[in-house]
Write a structure and sequence with these properties.
This protein is an alpha/beta fold. The protein is built from 20 helices and 27 strands. The chain binds 2-deoxy-2-amino glucitol-6-phosphate (AGP). 2-deoxy-2-amino glucitol-6-phosphate (AGP) binds near residues 299 and 346.
């Protein structure tokens, strides 16, 4: 979704804005622009298309100054074009605004402003904010922004500059991410840390309904009542290299290669003295014993991790689990009460659907446990307990290493709950703990087989439609494999439970249809072999993924087999997902797609 960068300092602002926006490209965008305060005026340049187009435009103009805001837009209201691009300017040309989110009552505000004589240029919801700030401005920009936001409904991260305040950037947020970076004689705002990491590691995380005033001296945070708020500085301990490609052709490949180390980072520190220690969890044994049901809510890949979580928790901890996509959960008046725990899973911690679903569950009394990757994100801050996935920054839109760490966190939760409930004896518990710690090594071995997966992908990148079928945990895994392929290869794909195909969808299998089949679940193995025979009998080409010990048998029915190390079936999804990710990656490369920034998609989905 949209990316924001703002700067106030001594240096020329334009390259700082452009370089910062480049670091936010992964979020997805269709247009870009900057506004720079200079000599009593705001110079604004914006355009449809990639940042390279904006840079080209800027080359021929002499735009410089020491205060400015920049934006990459992911269109919601109004098509991607030059006019709808941000920044948006007030009618008096004094105030420029960039915005991420949706102003829900913009139509009413627009009518009001039109009745006051304001003229609109764009179709965006954002333009009302620029005009409303002008309307409210009586010589104090912070106050004008506060008054404006008191009338605004919806989600926003905002950056504002004004010619009357040539040494100030004002910013604000509600339900859309925005951070403040503190430098020496220079300060920043950004949608995400990588945009400013080159300049500073000291961050202030804005809370909802807060406004910040940035000058060269520092940053002052206020609530919407105008009261000053103190905020602790958060020091980022990962470096620029973590957010760069480091010699890999794509972030996605780099991130897949990081899987072994980030799984280790998520699991190992939580196993202490042969026991699982879940950070500073305040969930008591009493709450756990009284828990009637667990809800898992998430979106996309995180939702697929949640489906694995359901299997794990039900099997090990014997607590019923309902998994739902956050956007559905939120609006179905879910039957949630104080005897339930809701697990919220999100890489970014800012996905609006997930955040809102979490608030819905919390409102109904449920205890919230968040599995989140971004420290200090909205979901992490609002949850009762947080289990961080230590995946580091994930830049490619297609989530890979974050999914692996979400599974790692869910293994820890399921095993810890089961142990606390007295459902695992010492021996079984210790065996599970040591097998859990073998996952990184197993993923490493799968990554070594990439050339074989690449070869298979090259033979099938022209497929029109691909089916993923599996049973039990392999069904959950199939859902993720299918999503990965869809989002970066643009090939139609569906995931089906192995036993469900014959109830209708098998009609779509014809000569040459590609079917990908993970077979990692011992107790379902024979059933799955039968399902493979069924699709083969109708002409399908089958790629199977199975533990080494079954390769010989599976080779008799499938066209190609990828072996994963022999591992306890419960942990197999964490290993068998890597070949599916690699397959999607190589198909996408072969098709010449933009692997890291697939069309129409955004990394952090901060609108509904
Ligand atoms: C994954 O490849 C997708 N890009 C997407 O489904 C993602 O997992 C989803 O939008 C949820 O994001 P989150 O984990 O940041 O909440």
């Amino acid at each position: 979704m949209c990316g924001i960068v703002g700067y106030v300092g001594q240096k020329n602002v334009t390259p700082i804005l452009i370089e910062g926006l480049k670091k936010l490209e992964y979020r997805g965008y269709d247009s870009a622009g900057v506004a720079v305060v200079n000599n009593g005026k705001v110079d604004m340049v914006k355009t449809k298309g990639r940042l390279a187009v904006l840079e080209d435009k800027l080359k021929n103009l002499n735009i410089s100054g020491t205060v400015g805001i920049g934006h990459t837009r992911w269109a919601t209201h109004g098509e991607p074009n030059d006019v709808n691009s941000h920044p948006h300017m007030s009618n008096n040309h004094k105030i420029a605004v960039v915005h991420n989110g949706i102003i829900e009552n913009y139509m009413q505000l627009k009518e009001f402003l039109i009745s006051k004589g304001y003229e609109f240029k764009s179709e965006t919801d954002t333009e009302v904010v620029a005009h409303l700030i002008e309307y409210n401005y009586k010589g104090n920009l912070v106050k004008a922004v506060m008054n404006t936001l008191n009338d605004v409904e919806g989600a926003y991260a905002l950056g504002v500059v004004c010619t009357d305040c040539p040494h100030q950037v004002v910013a604000a947020r509600k339900d859309s991410p925005l951070i403040v970076g503190l430098g020496q004689g220079e300060n920043f705002i950004a949608s995400d840390i990588p945009a400013i990491l080159e300049h500073t590691r000291d961050i202030l995380i804005l809370e909802d309904r807060e406004v910040v005033s940035l000058t060269t001296e520092g940053a002052e945070i206020y609530n919407l009542l105008g009261e000053k708020v103190e905020r602790e500085v958060f020091h980022v301990d990962w470096d620029v290299a973590s957010a760069e490609k480091g010699g890999y052709e794509h972030f996605m490949m780099k991130e897949m290669f990081e899987e072994p180390s980030v799984i280790k980072a998520t699991i190992n520190p939580r196993i202490q003295n042969n026991d699982i220690v879940l950070d500073k969890f305040r969930l008591t044994d009493e709450m756990l014993f009284n828990c009637e049901k667990i809800n898992i809510v998430a979106c996309g890949t995180a939702y697929h991790a949640g489906v694995v979580g359901k299997y794990l928790i039900e099997k090990l901890a014997r607590i019923p689990v309902e998994v739902d996509v956050a956007s559905e959960f939120r609006y179905r008046d879910p039957m949630v009460n104080e005897k339930q725990i809701t697990i919220v899973i999100s890489q970014s911690g800012e996905t609006l659907d997930t955040l809102m679903a979490m608030r819905e569950a919390k409102k109904k009394g449920s205890r919230i446990l968040a599995i989140v990757n971004v420290v200090g994100s909205s979901i992490a801050r609002e949850a009762d307990d947080v289990l961080y996935t230590w995946a580091g920054p994930e830049i490619a839109v297609a989530s890979t290493k974050a999914y692996n760490t979400q599974l790692s966190a869910l293994y820890l939760v399921a095993l810890s709950f089961a142990r606390r409930k007295g459902l695992l004896d010492d021996k079984t518990y210790q065996t599970y703990l040591s097998q859990l710690q073998e996952i990184p090594q197993c993923v490493e071995q799968v990554l070594q087989q990439r050339e074989m997966i690449q070869k298979f992908a090259y033979e099938h990148f022209n497929a029109k439609s691909v089916f993923f079928i599996g049973r039990g945990l392999d069904h959950a895994l199939s859902m993720e494999g299918s999503l990965k392929l869809k989002e970066i290869s643009y090939i139609h794909s569906e995931a089906y439970a192995g036993g469900e195909l014959k109830h209708g969808t098998i009609a779509l299998i014809e000569e040459g249809t590609l079917v990908v089949c993970p077979l990692t679940q011992e107790h379902l193995f024979e059933k799955m072999v039968s399902n493979i025979r069924e699709v083969k009998a109708r002409g399908a080409v089958v790629l199977a993924i199975t533990p080494e010990k079954h390769v010989e048998e599976v080779t008799k029915v499938a066209d190609a087999v990828i072996a994963i190390p022999d591992i306890e079936p419960l942990f197999a999804p964490a290993v068998a997902v890597t070949p599916l990710q690699l397959f999607a990656y190589y198909v996408s490369v072969m098709k010449g797609n933009d692997v890291d920034k697939p069309r129409n998609l955004a990394k952090s989905v901060t609108v509904e």
